[in-house]
User: What shape does this take?
Amino acid sequence: MKRREFITLLGSAGVMSTLWPFKVRAQRSIPVIGFLGSRGPGDDLHLLAAFRLGLKEVGYSEGQNVMIEYRFAENQYERLPALAADLVRRQVAVIIANGPAAQAAKAATATIPIVFTAGFDPVEVGLVASLNRPGGNVTGLSILDVELGPKRLELLHELAPNATKVAALVNPTDRARASAISKNMQAAAQTLGVQLQILHASTASDFDAVFANLVQQKVGALVIGGDPFFNSQSEHLGALTVRHAVPAIFQFRAFAAGGGLASYGADLADSYRQVGIYAGRILNGEKPADLPVMQSTKVELIINLKTAETLGLTVPRQIIARADDVIE
Assistant: This one.
């Protein structure tokens, strides 16, 4: 077996038995997956569970016939290249990478298979040659995120029609995503006839300045752009929008549950399950170049009526009818 694909365990306990001094047990080799995450090890445990579920669907269970080496950047994206390089040195069989971690993984290796989840266009940023024929060593799942920015702005405009000045919050450390969000949102704002201001945050300590700026600039509503760091702060951001009385929309249910006015975005758990399936298929011998980039199309709209009432907003009946869930 090639060293880059497998590690070797001696017996079930990892050592040779002393009961058979003249016989060496047969060695078992199991594949090793490298999981490169941009967030912290305690964030989104349900997504890791969904990934393992996908692996299990194609016959792999962690600790039994597959091992997983985890590397987390803890929202410090500048650490991703070094973490990716470490997984390459360990010669793992496949690397799983989310968002900005995918670009770091691709820069680190042109041979080890990479399976990504990304909320931006993977072709535009150079991850793959095309969605149907990715080519090279990279494939994965493209999550509806950046594309939903204009729709989130449209929904927010319906929920807070008197807000003529709206802000979009992006993370500048993820340049590809921040640039795409800003471009799409500016175009949508012009169509709706509202003024759009782009605000930046890359750490939790930036949020105080962001919300102070909203008040100072008399911004009437806020669209939070998709980003792994913002995802980890969903509930915190929801609570901040309530504290500062700002109508806001983000992509995940946790934001609306935390007090945000609305959320509109993809089902991430199902996306990670699909990535687990792809990882297992690659371990079974399929090549990333032959696996088309999947596209997540399932989205859900959550409305927090309690927050709407607190903000003095009347939610149109047609939006309530379209909502997948209403928090009262």
Notes: Residues 1-27 have pLDDT under 50 and may be disordered.
